[in-house]
Amino acid sequence: MAIVETPYLQLARDILEKGHPKNDRTGTGTRSLFGYQMRFDLSKGFPLLTTKKVAFGLVKSELLWFLRGDTNIRYLLQHNNHIWDEWAFKRWVESKDYSGPDMQDFGHRALLDSAFAAEYQKQKNFFCEQVLNNDDFASKYGELGDVYGAQWRHWKTRDGKTIDQIQNVITNIQEKPDSRRLIVTAWNPEDVPASALPPCHTIFQFYVANGKLSCQLYQRSADVFLGVPFNIASYALLTHLIARQTGLEVGEFVHTLGDAHIYNNHFEQIKKQLARDAKDAPKLWLNPSKKNIFDFEMEDIKVLGYEPHPGIKAPVAV
Asked: Less crowded by CB within 10 Å, the N or C end of the chain?
């Protein structure tokens, strides 16, 4: 295999060396670059970072959640995936039904106050238990609105119908592989105000050449330390899955970033990561008996030969 994460490591170096100081909606502050592009040759290995451990189980469960058309975090919690918790939790603690301790600005306060951090964790654990075990609570507060699952599988039309963009793009890859309209979009201006987090992955496009399927993602906002490693692996996996269903080999994953940023409280973590030597990329294994993208379960997807450096923790900006 080969080292395939080099473009990501170069992105991080470029932001640290050339990035612009920026304010952001979370109040954390970032250093960022605009209009950056990375290319990953998927035939040379699966682009799961080795300079820090990336929890591939979380990548799998999130992507399968999207492909189910699901927008409720219950499925994620059932697979021990907590990467969307904070946005749902925020809706609950800001609602009239919440009667616990003040949780305003919980993301920052938990970093500065250990007593508050313990109370925050207690409230979030309660919240997750309720989503898992209480149907009414899950329906009301586990729901994130029209995030990716809805946009990909149930795009709402003016006449009240829905469009399954994923199925449509698969059909078009099979029937019209040279089309320049092999596109899935998640950005709908009408839905943005009601979304827990407006789509960062606004649009992606597929391209077929020489029997290979490539994918390009345009990501408007990119958290380079925490989010982008997951995003790379997720869209690489999606490309593999759609290639499997359409009978193609994999080509490139092209990742185009709008605002590519490192949060000010992630600088030490990214420097620690950059000081490590990258290793050979792992290999992706897909259950050979599965072909339809919607039939895959967690156990049907694995990475082989993944021996990364230890993970590096960092706070999530909400």
From this structure: N
